[in-house]
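Lecture 7 notes: from sequence to structure.

We start with a single chain of 311 residues. Read the sequence below before looking at the structure.
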Amino acid sequence: MITAPPVPRHFLRVSDLDRGSLTALLDLAEVMRERPHGFVDALRGDTLVCLFEKPSTRTRVSFAAAAERLGMMPLLLRPDELQLGRGETIEDTARTLSGYAAAIVARTFAHETVEQLAGAASVPVINALTDVHHPCQALADLLTLRERFGSLEGLRVAFVGAGNNVATSLLEAGALAGIEVVVACPPGHEPRAPGRVVADPYEAVAGADAVYTDVRVSMGEEGEDRLARFEPYRVDARLMAAASPDAVFLHCLPAHRGEEVTAEVIDGPQSVVWRQAENGLPTEEALVLALVTRRWEASPGEPGRPLPTAA
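Now the structure, written as C-alpha cells:
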C-alpha cells in the first residue's frame, strides 16, 4: 500500500511541511502548470477567503486565479471592510469565516495574526506573507529552480540583502529540499531561521547556482540610514560574475532598479524573475487543493490519479 505524504492542517511557514510533502506539492504544482484548466471541478462551489492587510499585486492576483482554476469563488477582503475595524477579535472573525469558506488566506503585518487565525479557524489557514515568513514565495522559488536545474538537491543559493521574511522562508525551504542557502547581510539584519550567514556578498555568491535579492526597505522600514547600510549589497553584473556561469537571478518583486539590483541584471538573460512570479499560481493552487481535500490529488507521471488520503 502506498502511503501518501502528510498534509499539514495549516500552512503558516515552510517547516509546516516535511520533505515528502514538499516534494508532493511541487509535483502537483508541475501537473497544474501543465494542465491549467485540469482541476476546475476539484473544489467547485467552495469559497476561498483572502484577507489582506497589506497591498499586494502578485500574491493577491495569483491566489484569486488559483481559486478560479479550482472552481472556487475567491473573496478578497480588507480589514476595513470587516468588523475587525470595529473591534471584533481575530478569533471571532476566524470562527465566522470558517462557516463560509473552505480555506482562509491571510496577508498580515504581524505573524501572530495568522497564528491567531489558525488557532481559532476550523478550516485551513494559509500565510500569504507576514513580517516573519513568506512561505508561499518559497514554494514558487523552489518550483522555478527545479524547472531550471532539473533537481533541487545540491544546489547553492545566495540571498543578498536583508535577512527578512523572504530569506527566512528560503532558509527553511532549502533545509527541506537539500539546497545550500547562504545569506549575505549587514550585521544586525540576520534572518530568523538557522543557516549560514556572512557579511561579504561575494563570499555568499561565489559559485552559487542562483543569486536572490529583495527590496532593501520593506513597508514600515523606510529610512535613508537603512538604504546606506545596504549599498554594498546591490546585485550588479560584477557580483553576478562571481556566481556559477549558469547561475540565475531571482527576485520576489516588486523591484527597485538601481537600489537592490541593477536593470542590467534583472532585465538580463540570467533573470528568471517573471517565471518565478508565474510559478506562484500553480504552487498556490496545489497548496489550496491539498489543504482543503487533505490529500495529494495527482502523482508524478499519472496526472489526476488520486493518492491515498494523508494522515
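Strands lie at 47-52, 73-77, 103-107, 125-129, 156-160, 180-184, 196-198, 210-213, 248-251. Keep this in mind for problem set 3.
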